[in-house]
């Protein structure tokens, strides 16, 4: 009607008018009008313009003072005439399903949440779902509404307050949704009168921008409409009378440390949502074990926020899984478009965060942007140091952080000893862009760097020696340290601060097995070190850190040796005996790997002298262990056993269980060496038990280097004992573990052992290829001791293939290298292998065969290595027996065999027992009946 005169309006024009009047005073976009008036039909905007023009003409819009519909260029249309609503009773038609939008076809990971909310609403009447933007509050509210349709006789009504900009329009919007006609100046009274005896669930969605008005309205509804139940969604709690807050958290993502398989990943709701939305966008794929860690990482990076995951998954078809993961570091992900039908604030992450950011005060906006300097967790002290203004009251920052927590922009991360905070990754990217936009980015980065340095100076992060503490508790700090170092060594950074932070943080990088990063930052710092810092404690710390990281990451190299020697020289000049002891421990390991056993022993003996001067129990124990290992490698097995066992006794007496020097637990190293020594000394049962103890203790330590060493160096004990099954399991674990932590040296050891096992099982070609690959790596890493050992196994495999020429050359070279390197522990076995290769040749040199076996026996006895002695005695006894010297053979083998007191079910002793029986020795069978080795463990 126009005044009292009825006017004729077409159907489409009437639908447009109703849509505009329902949201009088607000801009309604053209797209919304097209979807409302022409649902499920594609039409041109020209049709809309024609009907709006017709509607204006019918209403007399623009005639005189009359104004009804205005066009807002680029945005849509707005009904600007005053609207008066008349109140009438609610319709008696029962549930009106049109009041509740349709839910999503499928929601993922919220089943328990929906059930909990349904139960809570029935008992509490007024519940607010509070969570970050994009967390899925609206989705959950709609699902709850549909689940409870049958519980409310008068229906479930959904009111989208996000579409309103004026709090005065809230009652009118609710009245329209409920079907009320307001005819009083107090619309609330009219609504309450209509609701007086109605059992309705009222869903108020997106309350945060009108939160004060909604809180007052909700309190009045709660007190004056006792049959009404309310479900509100907001980015912060309403703090209204009767409200019960339900905090909606992110979807669970796979743990970073968990099994990285497709089955494990698909058990996570976040990954399920990713796969579901990727398929919906046309990228259907079956998640593989190879892709599972990448998808899991994407979900973690997006903090399990459903909207962020949906937007990312929708791009999977364009960029691929790996490409998508790489793009997460790109700020343009904030602009990825979502569903066209989604609310404008949910169509991009940028729009979602704009919505929250624009509701903040200027001070809160400033604090949020400065907090973007933190990567991962931060404390309130950190926030004060980085986000506060110098000389200003700190309470303002603390209040702002609390407010940002309330508004779900900052998340709480509870830890055992303190409350920590963090910005979700997407929010941090947005806040960082705002910081760059408003200026002051470098000043905030400087304050953040100074705060990180202070964490080390104050002892919040212990400035420990390498491996001295379990660093896992300090892992949350690494993101901030990394970000600070990135800034320091950038073009706008502060090199001086970077050098200090690199030196302080090196043990933390090592303790968290981030060897490549630790190495990289040390190199950066040393390259920029000014002349005034040369020869100082700072250079010493950096050189030591570089040596440790490089050695365990890449193996032996000239760079590692140079760094150790330079650091030791500085420590001598500074009179730092404790640091000298650390560096000698590192030099001991370096020289041992290089196969220079004389120098290794000399370094160990020097360490004993310095440890005595220092007088520290841990240093004395380490020196004993290092000396024991050096004697083992040099072939002095009795001395090795003595020093290793003495170190263990002192460790127990002085209650020193962790002996950490140069990034290595020397107790674990000594246990591994002792296991090998015990086998060589003719005590295979004790050897296996000690090898298991070494692996178990390394696992309990939790440091990847210790475990890699224990796994790799204990495996030969099981091989020597003939327990191939356990050896194979340890080899598999070695390869998986060292691959995960990028420990190249130990990976090469694992490949060498796998090659040896594979060849022993008859797969000669595969086994030889693996051994050649490992040998190439050893030579590149200057790990001569392992190369020499591997030459022997490779020569044996070649001989079995009939490649006698190459086998003979390789074993001769290995024997020569062993003799040149200081007569190492495995020289007797290399001579035994040489003899067996010569014997298997088409035209064997029998004199050379016997000579090699006799030399093997001689060196085994000099080394007090009963295990090697038996290994040489068995083939020599067979050789003599074939020559008719049965008595000599029997006497030789029996003389060695009878020195054993345990382990008669191990491979070598069983073989010796059988051979003795063949040679007519009657006692061998009784000895061989001893309990099985594995049962005695």
Strand residue content = 5-15%
Radius of gyration over C-alpha positions, nearest whole angstrom: 38 Å
Helix content bin: 55-70%
Q: Biggest sheet, open or closed, and with what strands and sense? A: 5 strands, parallel
Alpha-beta classification: mainly alpha
- Silhouette: elongated
For the residues shown, what is the average pLDDT?
85
Number of strands: 13
Stretches where pLDDT falls below 50 for ≥5 residues?
86-98, 331-335, 337-347, 928-937
Please outline the helices and strands.
Layout: H1 11-22, E1 27-29, H2 30-37, H3 45-59, E2 69-72, E3 76-79, H4 111-124, E4 126-130, H5 137-147, E5 156-160, H6 170-178, H7 187-195, E6 201-205, H8 211-224, E7 229-234, E8 244-247, H9 262-266, H10 269-280, H11 292-301, H12 306-313, H13 316-327, H14 349-357, H15 362-371, E9 377-378, H16 380-387, H17 395-406, E10 411-414, E11 419-422, H18 425-438, H19 441-457, H20 478-488, H21 495-511, H22 515-528, H23 537-554, H24 558-574, H25 577-594, H26 597-614, H27 617-633, H28 637-653, E12 660-661, E13 664-665, H29 666-680, H30 684-701, H31 704-721, H32 724-740, H33 744-760, H34 764-780, H35 784-800, H36 804-820, H37 827-840, H38 846-862, H39 866-882, H40 886-897, H41 907-918, H42 924-928, H43 933-936
Parallel strand pairs: 4-7, 4-8, 5-6, 6-7
Antiparallel strand pairs: 1-3, 2-3, 9-11, 10-11, 12-13
